């Protein structure tokens, strides 16, 4: 009596999606001698076009060397601000290169008047908008590119970027410096929520001050 062939019932492993693969690629730099240059490059790129936030690598590097946590935060901040400047120039180049013409002539409901209104609003609240975006999970590149399209002045972009990015990256560094690897779980699970709560309070403070002054 012949034996029946044994079927392989193992479930085939599914490849992670593109975002997960990019996340793992970013994370692997922490295990190489090039972690700091990679952090600089990632922070620079994330402010203008790259989708993965630099916090991922900053946390991994800081946990491996907690005493250098603030150094890694400074690297992230400086590179991110430089990347924001690139984002500004990308937006500016697109706008003067014909994007405004495209919106006015081919997008229903968009007029020169409506664009001017958006520009006025961005001029009035641009600093707050950029600061909030720099600190929160909102994709920062959207705001840096838009700032160049509106345009908002480059010094305002730089000042808001320094403020918002410093608050974000040094908050992470402070947690890891004082609490070490044990805080990683809380950063991974609750940091984004904390930034959203902080942002709501920040915006509320701005509005309260504006109400009092008026």
Any descriptors?
single chain; 214 residues; mainly alpha; 0% strand; elongated
Polypeptide structure, described:
With 214 residues, the chain is mainly α. It has one domain (18-213). The chain is built from 8 helices and no strands. The protein has helices at residues 18-28, 35-46, 55-64, 69-106, 112-135, 140-149, 154-179, 184-213. α3 runs antiparallel to α4 (69-106) and α4 packs antiparallel against α7 (154-179). The chain starts with 17 loop residues before the first helix and ends with a helix.
Summarize, please.
This protein is mostly helical and 214 residues long. Helix content is 75%, strand content 0%.
Write the layout of secondary structure elements.
Blueprint: H1 18-28, H2 35-46, H3 55-64, H4 69-106, H5 112-135, H6 140-149, H7 154-179, H8 184-213
Helix pairs in contact: 2-4, 3-4, 3-7, 4-6, 4-7, 5-6, 5-7, 7-8
Q: What fraction of the residues are assigned to beta strands by DSSP?
A: under 5%
**What structural class results from the helix and strand content?**
mainly alpha
Q: Into how many domains do the coordinates divide?
A: 1
Percent of residues in helices? over 70%
Instruction: Give the low-confidence spans.
Output: 1-6
């Amino acid at each position: 009596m012949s034996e029946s062939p044994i079927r392989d019932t193992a479930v085939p492993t599914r490849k992670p999606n593109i975002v997960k693969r990019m996340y793992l690629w970013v994370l692997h730099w922490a295990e190489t001698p090039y972690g700091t240059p990679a952090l600089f490059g990632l922070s620079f790129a994330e402010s203008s076009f790259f989708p993965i936030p630099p916090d991922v690598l900053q946390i991994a590097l800081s946990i491996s060397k907690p005493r250098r946590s603030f150094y890694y935060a400074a690297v992230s901040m400086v590179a991110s601000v430089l990347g924001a400047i690139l984002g500004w120039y990308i937006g500016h180049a697109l706008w003067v290169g014909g994007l405004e013409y495209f919106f006015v002539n081919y997008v229903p409901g968009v007029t020169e008047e409506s664009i001017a209104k958006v520009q006025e609003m961005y001029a009035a609240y641009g600093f707050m908008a950029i600061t909030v975006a720099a600190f929160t999970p909102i994709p920062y590149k959207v705001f840096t590119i838009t700032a160049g399209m509106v345009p908002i002045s480059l010094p305002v972009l730089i000042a808001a970027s320094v403020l918002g990015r410093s608050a974000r990256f040094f908050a992470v560094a402070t947690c890891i410096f004082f609490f070490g690897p044990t805080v990683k779980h809380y950063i991974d699970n609750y940091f984004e929520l904390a930034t959203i709560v902080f942002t709501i309070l920040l915006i509320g403070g701005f509005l309260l001050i504006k109400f009092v002054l008026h």
